[in-house]
């Protein structure tokens, strides 16, 4: 099975003060994504920032970012509806009206660092139904064990599209699962048959858990959203070195890297 590599260049938390190479404006994000595509990424997970570098769900910024990415490369775009802790749910959910090929669906509210990540159940069900109407593939982000059960309830209610379900196992966020191999194994064993999954390891365990996930048959995500460092004490000069490292890990395991068309077929994305 080929490995799908996703690049996550920005995220909702870090700033240019944390890493000056963090892209926040549409042209910066598009350039970072294009470089990652050339290195082997077939999916771009996109968070948006306004001109003051704050998380935003502004549809005009989203459309411009998507258009600039499309001008530079044919990578598959996955818009984050998580956006940022300060952005209201209805504004975040409205991003799916732009009809990206994929968008995140966060099934549960939770503590997130020092803040609260609000995903009310009724609104989540409404968003899931709207994504199905628009043909936007959900990327189901799982921060804790009960989040998986919430996703399976959505499937039981007919609110998720046909297989394969696409899961991201997020480890290392304060308020969610700790970034340990044991937690990763627990979640992988609980996934429904036929699920497509990737690990999102936040912080210093990023490399270790990415390697374990690849060995277990999962996909991988890389970029400054997940770790600002290439190695201890060394800031990564952009997402490109992190993507290159992930691609090298997969190839060291004799795993081929999925291109855009293969990824689209694997996930059964709407044309």
Write the layout of secondary structure elements.
Blueprint: E1 5-7, H1 26-39, E2 43-46, H2 59-72, E3 76-79, H3 89-93, E4 102-105, E5 110-112, E6 115-117, H4 121-134, E7 137-142, H5 145-156, E8 166-171, H6 181-190, E9 196-201, H7 206-215, E10 219-222, E11 229-231, E12 234-235, H8 240-252, H9 260-267
Parallel strand pairs: 1-2, 1-10, 2-3, 3-4, 4-7, 7-8, 8-9, 9-10
Antiparallel strand pairs: 5-6, 11-12
Task: Report on this structure.
With 271 residues, the chain is α/β, with parallel strands linked by helices. The protein has a single domain (5-267), classed as Aldolase class I (TIM Barrel). The chain has 9 helices and 12 strands. It has helices at 26-39, 59-72, 89-93, 121-134, 145-156, 181-190, 206-215, 240-252, 260-267, and strands at residues 5-7, 43-46, 76-79, 102-105, 110-112, 115-117, 137-142, 166-171, 196-201, 219-222, 229-231, 234-235. An 8-stranded parallel beta barrel has the order 1-2-3-4-7-8-9-10, surrounded by 8 helices. A two-stranded antiparallel sheet has the order 5-6. Helix 5 (145-156) links the parallel strand 7 and strand 8 (166-171). Helix 1 runs parallel beside helix 2 and helix 1 (26-39) runs parallel beside helix 8 (240-252). The protein is globular, with a radius of gyration of 17 Å.
């Amino acid at each position: 099975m080929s490995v799908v590599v996703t690049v996550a260049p920005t995220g909702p938390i870090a700033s240019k003060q944390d890493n000056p190479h963090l892209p926040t404006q549409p042209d910066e994000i598009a350039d970072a994504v294009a470089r990652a595509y050339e290195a082997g990424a077939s999916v771009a997970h996109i968070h948006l920032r306004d001109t003051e570098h704050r998380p935003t769900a502004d549809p005009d910024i989203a459309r411009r970012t998507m258009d600039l990415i499309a001008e530079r490369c044919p990578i598959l775009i996955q818009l984050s509806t998580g956006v940022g802790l300060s952005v209201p749910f209805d504004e975040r959910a409205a991003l799916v009206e732009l009809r990206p090929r994929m968008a995140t669906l966060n099934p549960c509210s939770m503590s997130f660092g020092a803040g609260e990540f609000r995903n009310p159940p009724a609104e989540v069900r409404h968003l899931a139904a709207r994504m199905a109407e628009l043909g936007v593939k959900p990327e189901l982000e799982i921060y804790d064990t009960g989040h998986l059960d919430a996703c399976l309830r959505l499937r039981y209610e007919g609110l998720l599209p046909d297989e394969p379900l696409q899961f991201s196992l997020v480890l290392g966020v304060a308020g969610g699962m700790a970034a340990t191999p044991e937690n990763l194994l627990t979640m992988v064993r609980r996934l429904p048959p036929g699920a497509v999954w990737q690990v999102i390891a936040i912080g210093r365990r990023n490399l270790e858990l990415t390697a374990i996930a690849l060995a277990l048959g999962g996909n991988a995500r890389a970029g400054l959203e997940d770790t600002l460092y290439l190695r201890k004490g060394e800031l990564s000069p952009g997402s490109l070195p992190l993507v290159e490292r992930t691609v090298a890990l997969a190839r060291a395991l004799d795993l081929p890297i999925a291109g855009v068309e293969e990824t689209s077929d694997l996930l059964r994305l709407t044309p």
